[in-house]
């Protein structure tokens, strides 16, 4: 019986020869380069980043970050570009020294991640004007999002992909998705995205003390909150500032 054997085709290279060192990164964990959508969805499910709903769409978990923070957007103010920026409520300045601290924190976080996902994509269709942008994230579903939003290079272009975002802005040619950093000290934040974690923390403390009835917890938190703004509940401050000690006292759990 005659048999035919065919040589195995080598998998196409998806990792750029211009590695993450250009972004100042030296990852300790596994790095996934330019995965396609099905691979990213599989990775997201494996990592418990969400779940598949009926008919197949992936529902990502964003908790505890449940909303946008438009007031937390800043632009680094430095000499080569500060005259070109319309500074104000939208374009709020950020000091270069604080940016350097933030960048160091982000790099350290990404370097320590068990897994990183990298997508090399184009912003703009015209080769003469487009940007070659590299996205780096510890979450697979983030990469599925950007892969859908931007132009995907040909497979043959990936090994030589060279991020050129640095040529336009004094920023590394990457978009980082890091979940936690605070280098500006104590800043007044507002909105349910900031209030909910504080309220949830006090509620968890009460539950740890044996108070398990949600209605009781809700009532004591509302009654013991420090009223802010106009008298009573309002659309700006809600019931006011949650007071953990007052809540414990209201339930007879503290003096």
What does this structure look like?
With 255 residues, this protein is of the alpha/beta class. The protein has two domains: 20-70 and 106-176, 3-Layer(aba) Sandwich (Phosphoenolpyruvate Carboxykinase, domain 1); 192-250, no CATH class. The chain has helices at residues 37-46, 96-112, 140-149, 192-208, 214-224, 244-250, and strands at residues 30-33, 50-52, 58-60, 74-76, 92-94, 115-123, 131-137, 174-176. Strand 2 and strand 3 form a beta hairpin. Helix 1 (37-46) packs antiparallel against helix 3 and helix 5 (214-224) crosses helix 6 (244-250). Mean pLDDT is 81; it is low at 166-189.
Alpha-beta content class: alpha/beta
Put simply, the count of helices is 6
Low-confidence stretches: 166-189
CATH topology of the largest domain: Phosphoenolpyruvate Carboxykinase, domain 1
The first-level CATH class name of the largest domain: Alpha Beta
- CATH architecture descriptor of the largest domain: 3-Layer(aba) Sandwich
H/E element order: EHEEEEHEEHEHHH
Distance between the termini: 90 Å
Q: How many structural domains?
A: 2
How many whole angstroms does the radius of gyration measure?
Answer: 24 Å
Q: In percent, how helical is the residue content?
A: 25-40%
